[in-house]
Amino acid sequence: MQRSYYVKAIWDPEAAVWTSQTDIPSLVIEADDLAEFEALMEALGPEMLAANAGIHNQTIPIEFSAASRRELLVA
């Protein structure tokens, strides 16, 4: 059975960037916006799977999601 992977973009309000949480070995992404994040994921994800998981010439399912958390002052 083919394994699937995930990449989650998480907003870091202090740094004002999207950072990655993933199970793809050695994949670390930091981007100013989601479009840049997705482009980096599509470029670097296969590269990291090839280099660190020995996966070559295969189509691998990757679940992508984005999450943002905000704190609001309730008066």
- Strand line-up across the major sheet: 3-2-1-4
**Domain unit count:** 1
Please state the CA-atom Rg, rounded to the nearest Å: 14 Å
Q: Can you tell me the CATH topology? A: TTHA1013/TTHA0281-like
Spell out the CATH superfamily: TTHA1013-like
Enumerate the spans where pLDDT stays under 50 for 5 or more consecutive residues.
none
**Count, helices:** 1
* Nearest-integer average pLDDT: 93
- The assigned structural class equals alpha+beta
Broad CATH class: Alpha Beta
Largest sheet: 4 strands, mixed
**Element string (H = helix, E = strand):** EEEHE
CATH architecture label: 2-Layer Sandwich
Distance between the termini: 53 Å
Shape: elongated
Oligomer: single chain
Say how many strands there are: 4
Strand content: 25-35%
Helix content: 25-40%
Structure report:
The protein is built from one helix and four strands; from the N terminus they run E-E-E-H-E. With 75 residues, it is an alpha+beta fold. It has a single domain, classed as TTHA1013-like (TTHA1013/TTHA0281-like), CATH 3.30.2390. It has a four-stranded mixed sheet, with helices on one face. The radius of gyration is 14 Å and the shape is elongated. The model has no long low-confidence stretch (mean pLDDT 93).
